[in-house]
Amino acid sequence: MKSCPLCRCIPGLVALLLSACATSQGPSNAVNDRSEAQTAERIGPAPESKSFAGAEGVLSSTGDDPDVGPPEGGNRLIRLRPGQIVEVFRGRNAPGDGRPELAFYLPVEARSVVQLVVGSKGFTKTYFLRAIRTGDTVGGVVERRWLDDDGYNPRDPAAAARIRKAVRAAPHQISVY
Q1: DSSP per-residue string spanning 27-61
Q2: Residues 119-175 pLDDT 10s
Q3: Largest Cα–Cα distance of the chain, in whole Å?
Q4: pLDDT tens digit string along 87-127?
Q5: Half-sphere exposure of 158 toward its Cβ, with a 13 Å CA cutoff?
Q6: Three-state SS across 146-163?
Q7: Cα dihedral sign, 138-134-43-38
Q8: N or C end of the chain: smaller count of CB under 10 Å?
Q9: Distance in angstroms (rounded) separating the CA atoms of residues 163 and 50
């Protein structure tokens, strides 16, 4: 049985086309869009130093407020009210594109404050946070291969260390008020 040369080239052309497509993987625009009013609302006076005379071994407190000032470096600040749902990350995994699949990760202690909801359509996975109760926590974007089959917990202790490092490098600070 003979096959035409064009038929043998079609799978290669499709793979080449998929590898050249722009990716939609990355943080959600909802997290990146911050109005000037929100930024101005968070900026306040510098915290006051407090010290306690006569108390040995007591450290002085700077009175830092997590809602004061913009997040440091490349950090993202996500502010939610209980019951509110917001898109935080959109990941894409096209077979053969040569890029690792990324996922949004919440540590176990963060899951009492916010719930991670994952929606998928085709090769795209969209990650949402649903605020459960008031509190402050942190999450971040990690490689999907570091997570177990469910996608919520580290696969092994080495993966847990990689996840901690990735979250510390670019944390998403989550505040439910």
Answers
A1: E-HHHH---HHHHHHH--PPPPPB--TT-TTPPPB
A2: 988 889 999 999 999 999 999 999 999 999 988 999 999 999 999 999 999 999 999
A3: 95
A4: 999 988 877 778 889 999 999 999 999 999 999 888 899 99
A5: 1
A6: HECCCCCCECCHHHHHHH
A7: positive
A8: N
A9: 36
* CA neighbor of 65 nearest in space, from 82, 42, 86, 81: 42
Burial pattern 82-105, b for ≥16 Cβ within 10 A else e, equals eeeebbbbbbbbbeebeeebbbbb
What is d(CA 95, CA 27) in angstroms, rounded to the nearest whole number? 21
Q: Answer whether 177's CB lies under 8 Å from 134's CB.
A: yes
| Selected residue with higher pLDDT from 113 and 8 | 113
CB 45 within 8 A of CB 64: no
Whether the full predicted model's pTM is greater than 0.70, yes or no, is: no
